[in-house]
Automatic annotation (TrEMBL):
<dbReference type="InterPro" id="IPR050596">
    <property type="entry name" value="AspAT/PAT-like"/>
</dbReference>
<dbReference type="Pfam" id="PF00155">
    <property type="entry name" value="Aminotran_1_2"/>
</dbReference>
<protein>
    <recommendedName>
        <fullName>Aminotransferase class I/classII large domain-containing protein</fullName>
    </recommendedName>
</protein>
<feature type="domain" description="Aminotransferase class I/classII large">
    <location>
        <begin position="146"/>
        <end position="496"/>
    </location>
</feature>
<dbReference type="GO" id="GO:0006520">
    <property type="term" value="P:amino acid metabolic process"/>
</dbReference>
<dbReference type="InterPro" id="IPR004839">
    <property type="entry name" value="Aminotransferase_I/II_large"/>
</dbReference>
<dbReference type="GO" id="GO:0008483">
    <property type="term" value="F:transaminase activity"/>
</dbReference>
<keyword id="KW-0663">Pyridoxal phosphate</keyword>
<keyword id="KW-0808">Transferase</keyword>
<dbReference type="InterPro" id="IPR015421">
    <property type="entry name" value="PyrdxlP-dep_Trfase_major"/>
</dbReference>
<comment type="similarity">
    <text>Belongs to the class-I pyridoxal-phosphate-dependent aminotransferase family.</text>
</comment>
<dbReference type="InterPro" id="IPR004838">
    <property type="entry name" value="NHTrfase_class1_PyrdxlP-BS"/>
</dbReference>
<keyword id="KW-0032">Aminotransferase</keyword>
<dbReference type="GO" id="GO:0030170">
    <property type="term" value="F:pyridoxal phosphate binding"/>
</dbReference>
<dbReference type="InterPro" id="IPR015424">
    <property type="entry name" value="PyrdxlP-dep_Trfase"/>
</dbReference>
């Protein structure tokens, strides 16, 4: 796996198109050096980025398939609204060709691109945002397809504990619910979480900050621990929101390691080499355990090894434990603690609280200044997590882990149904699912365009899954087994089986 200089090696398709539309000759949107490439790069619009980025006099080619793009436009969200569809349709007739970087720098900054700089043009938007990958939005994926069953979104089908919801009904008129709370979180919730961390996660030397979900927790950490231009490490297939958090905060030197194709565990030898040889040393290593999108669970000795490598190198280890309760087949979740380790948690899946936006960071007591810096970031983003959400989290904790485990046990049947549904892909094609709510499946070689397959499955077979490219895994799909009850999963599984059977035997017949 190579180094992905995100903002640089992935010149935004949008900015390319825009600059080519507004300026003649074609102007590069990125008057910078390109130094690496991510293999098999496909952006969320489905166009292949073919890059040869080893020299500073770089040539970037972007092959644009207008048919594919227009077919995907209704499916993917970003800053593309429907009025832009026409615009991009027109752009389809443009032939984007290779351009040299430096000779046209002047025109990027000069008169010719004046329109780029006018208010209301894309040129006025931050490259940091424009050049960040767009998330695959499941609702958009399903738009216009009324009868599509979703195995796409990473959600659970249950609601928060009934008793907890009933208590919320009683407290909404309390004035404190509508006021700001302390940045760190409600004291009573933090106390309950510290107790939970001690009892369940064996974290005895950690402090807690309550956030608006684990995603915001991750952004807080990136802003607190990394500077723009720092290098960081993650492993493919990775959690796409973490990748985007790095990109949009300017941490564009993302070193993406491989995972073992059999186990989907991170390549620890690669990490060792990377931490040893990379100068400057990567600032942060990020893992999700159990994983999204893989559903793979990193065994304790392996995470301990990763932790040791990070400690010796002076890198932070951030572990996202969003799926801590989602463990199967007798495996038990664990956490590690150390003054270089930060653990993230979420109420979203465990307690069916996706929309209430509550998560938390467990960070080491002994890290100098970390608390103060985290507070600065927190105070500028949510100020505090929603108070009513925090109160619900507090009441939900009273239901306890057994309440969650009862529900998680039922997911085993869903997983089995979907594993069976994917059997047409071949014996060795489906991996993961040891934990979390995901299976990770390799598409047949002859139909390995995952975006195309996802669209085709939704349109023709009425079932939605996530393209692996979104997580750095082109040629794969992610299938979630958490979002539907067993009866619905059964129906979705039948559709998926039919679709995959057809894919394998006949290809994507329209
Ligand atoms: C690994 C991981 N981390 C974080 C999140 C987001 O969690 P939250 O809703 O708490 O922001 C998700 C949601 O899919 C996830 O899969």
């Amino acid at each position: 796996m190579g180094r992905a200089k995100c903002g640089e090696t992935r010149p935004s398709f949008l900015s390319q198109c825009l600059s080519s539309n507004f300026a003649a000759p074609l102007t590069p949107p990125l008057p910078r050096k390109h130094v690496g490439s991510r293999e098999g790069l496909v952006n969320p619009w489905g166009n292949q980025l073919v890059t040869d980025l080893r020299s500073s006099e770089v040539v970037v080619c972007e092959f644009f398939n207008p048919n594919l793009l227009s077919s995907l436009l209704p499916s993917f969200h970003g800053f593309l609204g429907s009025p832009l569809e026409l615009f991009f349709g027109l752009l389809g007739s443009l032939n984007l060709t290779a351009y040299p970087t430096s000779p046209v720098l002047g025109s990027w900054r000069g008169e010719e691109v004046k329109e780029e700089e006018e208010m209301g043009s894309f040129g006025r938007l931050a490259r940091r945002a424009v050049e960040t990958d767009a998330p695959v939005m499941v609702k958009e994926l399903l738009r216009g397809n009324k009868d599509v069953m979703s195995l796409a979104q990473g959600v659970v089908y249950w609601q928060p504990p009934e008793a907890a919801l009933n208590k919320i009904k009683e407290i909404v008129w309390e004035p404190s619910i509508s006021k700001y709370g302390s940045d760190d979180g409600l004291p009573e919730l933090r106390e309950a979480l510290l107790e939970k961390l001690r009892r369940e996660n064996k974290l005895t030397n950690s402090s807690v900050m309550v956030t608006s979900g684990a995603n915001q927790a991750f952004v807080n950490l990136v802003l607190t621990l990394c500077d723009a231009g720092d290098s960081v490490v993650m492993f493919a297939p990775y959690y796409f929101n973490s990748y985007m958090s790095f990109q949009m905060t300017g941490v564009t030197d993302i070193l993406v390691g491989a995972s073992n194709p059999e186990t989907l565990h991170p390549d620890v030898d690669w990490l060792e080499k990377t931490l040893r040889e990379n100068n400057p040393i990567p600032k942060l290593v990020s893992v999700v355990n159990p994983g999204n999108p893989s559903g793979a669970f990193i065994p304790k000795p392996m995470l301990q090894k990763i932790s040791e490598l990070c400690r010796n190198a002076g890198a932070w280890l951030v572990v996202d434990n969003t799926y801590e309760y989602f463990m199967y087949d007798g495996m038990e979740h664990y956490c590690l603690e150390g003054n270089h380790i930060v653990n993230l948690f979420s109420f979203s899946k465990a307690y069916g609280m996706m929309g209430w936006r509550v998560g938390y960071i467990a960070y080491p007591n002994e890290a100098d200044g970390l608390h103060a810096q985290l507070l600065k970031v927190q105070d500028n983003i949510p100020i505090c997590a929603s108070i009513v959400g925090q109160r619900l989290a507090l009441y939900a904790l009273e239901a306890g882990p057994e309440w969650i485990r009862e529900r998680v046990r039922d997911l085993v049947k869903n997983r089995e149904l979907l594993m069976e549904a994917m059997s047409p892909l071949g014996e060795d094609a489906v991996k993961g699912g040891e934990g979390a709510i995901y299976l990770w499946a390799k598409l047949p070689e002859k139909c390995s365009d995952d975006f195309e397959v996802v669209r085709w499955l939704a349109n023709k077979h009425g079932v939605a899954v996530i393209p692996g490219s979104a997580s750095g895994g082109p040629g794969y799909i992610r299938v979630s087994f958490g979002g539907l009850k067993e009866s619905d999963t059964r129906l979705a599984a039948e559709r998926l089986r039919r679709g995959l059977q057809e894919l394998v035997t006949e290809g994507m017949v329209q």
